[in-house]
Write a structure and sequence with these properties.
The protein is α/β, with parallel strands linked by helices and 485 residues long. The chain is built from 14 helices and 12 strands. The strands form 3 sheets. Strands 2-8-7-6-5-3-4 form a 7-stranded mixed β-sheet, sandwiched between helices. Helix 4 runs antiparallel to helix 12 and helix 6 packs across helix 8. The longest helix is centred in the C-terminal third of the chain and has 36 residues. The relative contact order is 0.14. It binds pyridoxal-5'-phosphate. The site of pyridoxal-5'-phosphate has 14 residues, from helix 6.
């Protein structure tokens, strides 16, 4: 028996595979579903007893796998908020996977882990004293932050929930537009999804702060333990930014933890037109942002910042372990492996082993700087505004919600009497079928809307024009078909 795994000369192998990446990024290939039977027949195979070697493996990757990937990196794909990665971020990620297969150890990668978190704090106005860490995404970032909030709430009762578990139920407060990962965090933390009390939003999609105050007062009167208030800095469906400063006032009054979910929208702060809406952010007890959204990092990187780092340690420290204790001698370190790194990230969250992710954020910001990222955010926001204006002006389009950040919620309005939700759902199906401009749908006050979120580094004003052209031509044709039925 012989092992075949190649572990050297990676650039030669890269040269073999990378032309397939270039071809993919021209976006001239058909959608994966069109050739599905073919690639399924090639790829669906029993467990191989014998290896075929790297050359044949790469040939399959190049010919059958890469070309049948996702539409997400397309410039016209505006449905998911995660996006195709930029070259800098991809190359940095592969470098980390190759040269630093852990964030542990005092390496150049771990320096960038710390530095890129500090850069995010400066860039986005997150409180200086907050302790950051990278996570797999926004879902785990929300969970880690709300776990720290849980620790704080029970410590106020004189209890250590991380050590002994829940002694009493608790309630979280979030707007009806909050991301469902907040509910998941509530479930995992032992409160249950139903413990997320929904606060109604305004016509603009923002949490109604007077209703939040009312809910907190009722909770206090009923002796219910409030765990946290979750404010949106960019709602996933509408881009709406909650009134952070006003919510922070209420949280202070009721002594409740303020968590700001900026997974999508925190970088919106770089646009001078929106900057004012983020006032008060530094008052939050915890904040999250996803580098794998507006920053253009490959999927698998979120970031969470918690003001009180000691709470993180009390929430997440696994306690002593015989496989790790004694591995590190922080005094008189003579080797990068002597030191766990400057920050004990593995005791501040839910992962032990984790990739070095900071180098991706470092590479992104090193390549284009704050100015470059600001230009991207401003361009995307301006694109949503341009689309919003077009929707207001065109007799067959209807703007369904004030444009906020890079999201525009609109729909087609035919000149016939019909179920507009059904009409727009079918219009959306046909857009997806064409496969060039792919927004998602969302629901605004019970109405189905087309909801592009411009976020990919490749998305530019051409995509606004193309989307409008597609929506109008499909809408007109559907209108004829429907009026003949
Ligand atoms: C995307 C998003 C999340 C979830 O983040 P993932 O990275 O997909 O896990 C949470 N909150 C908001 C507001 C989001 O837009």
């Amino acid at each position: 028996m012989k092992e075949l795994a190649q572990v050297t000369n990676i650039s030669e192998w890269l040269a073999q595979l990378s032309p397939a990446w270039d071809r993919f990024l021209q976006f001239e290939h058909p959608d994966a579903l069109q050739n599905r039977n073919h690639w399924v027949s090639v790829l669906e195979q029993p467990l191989p007893e014998q290896g075929v070697g790297l050359e044949a493996t790469l040939a399959l990757l190049a010919k059958h796998i890469v070309p049948n990937g996702s539409a997400i990196p397309r410039p016209g794909c505006s449905s998911w908020i995660t996006t195709g990665a930029t070259n800098a971020a991809l190359l940095a990620r592969w470098s980390a996977d190759l040269a630093s297969p852990q964030r542990l150890g005092l390496t150049a990668f771990s320096l960038l882990e710390d530095q890129s978190l500090a850069w995010l704090q400066t860039l986005l106005g997150i409180a200086e004293q907050a302790q950051g860490q990278f996570t797999a995404g926004g879902a785990s970032a929300n969970l880690i932050a709300l776990g720290a909030a849980r620790q704080a709430a029970y410590e106020h009762l004189g209890e250590d929930v991380a050590e002994y578990g829940l002694s009493a139920p608790g309630v979280l407060f979030a707007s009806s537009a909050c991301h469902r990962t907040v509910h998941r965090a509530a479930a995992v933390l032992g409160f249950g999804r139903r413990a997320v009390q929904s606060i109604e939003v305004s016509q603009q999609g923002q949490m109604q702060v007077d209703r939040l105050a009312l809910a907190l007062r009722q909770a206090r009167d009923q002796g219910v333990l409030p765990i946290a208030v979750v404010a949106n800095a960019g709602a996933t469906s509408t881009g709406a930014i909650d009134s952070i400063a006003a919510i922070a006032d209420v949280c202070e009054e009721f002594k409740v933890w303020l968590h700001v979910d900026g997974a999508y929208g925190l970088p919106g702060k770089l646009d001078p037109d929106y900057e004012q809406q983020y006032v008060g952010l530094e008052r939050a007890n915890s904040v999250i942002v996803d580098p794998h959204k507006w920053f253009g990092a490959p999927v698998g990187i979120g970031a969470v910042f918690v003001k009180n780092a000691a709470l993180l340690a009390r929430s997440y420290s696994a306690g002593p372990s015989d496989y790790l204790e004694g591995s590190f001698t922080t005094e008189n370190a003579q080797h990068s492996m002597d030191v766990p790194g400057s920050v004990p990230y593995n005791d501040f969250g839910i992962d032990l082993s984790a990739p070095a992710r900071g180098v991706m954020v470092w590479a992104i910001l090193k390549e284009i700087g704050v100015e470059g990222l600001r230009a991207r955010v401003c361009r995307h926001n301006a694109m949503a505004k341009a689309l919003g204006r077009a929707a207001e002006q065109h007799p067959n389009l209807e703007l369904m919600m004030n444009v906020s950040l890079s999201i525009c919620c609109f729909r087609y309005r035919p000149n016939i009497n019909c179920d507009l939700n059904q009409f727009n759902r079918q219009l959306h199906r046909e857009l997806v079928h064409r496969g060039i401009n792919i927004p998602s749908t969302a629901s605004v006050r019970g109405q189905l809307v087309l909801r592009p979120c411009f976020i990919g580094a490749r998305a530019d004003f051409k995509q606004v024009d193309d989307l409008l052209t597609d929506v109008l031509s499909i809408g007109e044709r559907l209108e004829q078909v429907w009026s003949n039925e």
